[in-house]
Amino acid sequence: MDILICDPVSEKALQYFRKRGFSVTYRPSITEAELLREIGDYQAVLVRSRTKITATVIAKAKTLKVIARIGSGFDNIDIKKARNRKIVVVNAPDANSQAVSELTLWMMLTLLRGGYRAVRSMAGGKWLKNDLWGSELAGKQVGVVGFGHIGRKVVDLLKAFGAEVLIYDRKHQTCSLEDLFRKSDIITLHLALNESTEGLIGSLLLNSMKKNAFLINMSRGPIVDEEALYQVLFSKKIAGAALDVYWQEPLPPDSKWRKLPNLIATPHIGAATNEALEKASITAADDIVKVLDGFKPDNPV
Predict the structure, then answer these.
(1) Which of 117, 149, 190, 220 is catalytic?
(2) Which CATH number does the domain housing residue 71 bear?
């Protein structure tokens, strides 16, 4: 069989495969045990972030030629093992950048204006008109850590709002990472998770932030030292944070992170728009077809 799809995709991607004569097995709720049992039958597998393509899965994938990731991150795929087996890995690096950057801006505005507290207070029967004084994004210094597809789009949006932008990336820097953390009113993270970025944002950087500053993480939880961030929020050494990603997902119902009053938490929905899903699905599907037809993909990892 040709293609196994392990997570929800756009209907257009399914149609795309079928029009080109490929057989498709659509299993958007497949379990790890089922995947291990069935992966050996397929030439291609298509996943989002839920499904983990581990070394064990790859070892069972005797006929696999290509692994496709709907989205930009690929930390749920054992890249080294795939390369050792000469399995091509592709992703959709720019497909979700608009969705993630828009949610990033929403988080900034919500933090600055106390939007979350305003909505909750109204639902609770209160009228806090005189208590909810916020700040404007215009004129703020915003540090953007990571200058890939998403980071660049965030910078464009920030400039439209009149913010001053500091950038830190391995390939492009307007200042050092230490200066960015020390000077910024808001810091937003848009990095891929790898050996060089895991734990990059630690206690020293977090404790160097302004007392009235905010941190936003839209990339991956392990990029930030979990306990260090919790402590600066719990002790109110910084004004607050917004997280869309965590060190354990799903976030447990009794997690201490759910109890912090100065945290906005969303359930990893950065790329969760219909438009992003369609773009990412078609981008990944197109590269699968290229590989199976013997051509080079457009977006190899």
Answers:
(1) 220
(2) 3.40.50.720
